[in-house]
Amino acid sequence: MEQDDFIMRIAHILISEFRGIKVLEWSPSPSVNCMIGPGDSCKTTILDAIEIGLSPRYGYTGSDPDLFRCDPTSKPEICLTLVDLPDELVVEQKYGLYLRGWNEAAKKINDEKADGDQTALTVKALLDPETLEWKWEIFNERLEGEPPRFGFKDAKSTAPNRLGEYADRHLTWGRNSVLGRLEKGPNASELLASSVRQAKASFAAGDRSSFDDVVKLTEKVGADFLVPKVQGYEAQLDIHSGMLASGAVSLHDGDMPLRTLGSGSSRLMVAGVQNSGPKQNITLVDELELGLEPHRIMRLLRFLRSGFPQQGDAPPIVHQTFLTTHSPVVVCELDVSELFCVRSPAGNVSVECARPSEGQEETAQRHVRSNPNAFLAPRLLIGEGRTEVGFWRGLDDLWCAEDKESFAYQGVVAIDGGGNDNAVKFGLHMQKLGYSCFTLLDTDVPVSEVNKEKFKEAGGQVAEWEDDCDIERRIFLDVPWATVREIIDYALEVVGEGRVLSNLCLAGMGPADIDRAALNILADSEDNRIWLAAAATLKVAKNTGGKEDRSWFKDMTRGEQLGKIVFDCLKAIPETPLAITINEVRHWVDA
């Protein structure tokens, strides 16, 4: 690839005292950087900082909210180190004397370029807290005296493509629009000037009497204030360079302007145009899912990740993209290496890649696909499987009915951890990314003590069902017998009498044969409770190998109803291991 074909990208970001960011240092990925995190974690602020840093504008001013915590003594700075630079920026007459080196392996800037370093240029945007004016300059540590200014004309080479809520303006040839950045033909200006003259002549020849009253009033006011008048006021079409210039020309589908498309269609059109033209810049997308159905989200992400089609036979080019999302659909479609978790305690913003550093990438990717909601919530309640997820959802519904705060209000999501060791490993990974995690473990299968200790040391909390139990066994052992009967009735309803009775027979802990009449008169005893628990979670060997899961409640919906059945008896059994553990979880939720 020739130098002119390189796609400029940001190798290093350093932001200080800008809006909610006290300090942020980040080396983003060369391709897709999808930022996720709780509200007000400064995701959009990062996009804004990149846009400001790479878009020098004459006389551009900020405001007090651009200062960290509106503190007039703060001095916002945005430093962006760029690599794969276009030729026009690296020539000696431009910024060639101020270049630096970027070590990709070490993620380090060298002020003097070393062997193996990529050529880099650091652009710094500074906001004067007194005048609130932005200025742009080139930065390196070798500079003596006044640093060189980063020119306004260079914005054409560096300004990112921002895909925001109002994409329709990019479907005209207006100032700073995507179409406006593309080259126009040689006769465009002459055509516009001719159109202006024709429009003015047509307006002057028409009936302008509807403007007469306003014209006379204005003429009188002018006379009252001694405003000089040469020939007399009249209404004329005033089309100057800011109106019927490029901005008055827009794309049409027949007679219908494309700017009237829906917000989702407009965003897709603009994304395609700005990434397929001759000027290939960094792309910024805030809330990618806005106005898009899941299938259109998938299509847009595919192009952002693998490149948009280019003109002719040119291969697709992958741009560096920074985007934010609050949608599980977006998270589910991305690779774990493309997700970046943003946290901002006291303004100290961190951006961490969701890819594990210790060889658990496959497990993490599985959770991206199966539990995308987990990556969008600040707090995770991690259980053994689908039954637990449903169980906590059922309890949450009834807690809300008692005027307790919901899991959603507290930022908690219950997720399927996929088995004991997997649950602990996933919890450890998420805890390191800044999530607050509570893992509830079964004790019928051993769990690595080493992993549990690592999880606790990282700040995670662990609870375990007592006495070699999973959740179903603990429930059958602890709830009143009347509740056990209610659970059996629910099992008969959802899996059928045949499955319930055959499981009891196959469990091998009671009579070799049992019918409905015998089940209806089953007496309360510890042995019978253990028998019912074994039948409820039964797995039997298959002739072809493996095991058939014949469980009664291994389903989120059934687990939810199980939670609602248990809820009604919890106040009657406060000293049981079941109630104690549930209360421990509730205290964590409310903390």
From TrEMBL:
Coiled-coil portions: none
Organism superkingdom: Bacteria
UniProt entry keywords in alphabetical sequence: Endonuclease, Hydrolase, Nuclease
Listed GO MF terms: ATP binding; ATP hydrolysis activity; endonuclease activity
ATPase AAA-type core domain sequence ranges: 32-331
GO terms, biological process: DNA synthesis involved in DNA repair; double-strand break repair
UniProt keyword Nucleus, yes or no: no
Protein name: Predicted ATP-dependent endonuclease of the OLD family, contains P-loop ATPase and TOPRIM domains
Species assigned in the record: Yoonia tamlensis
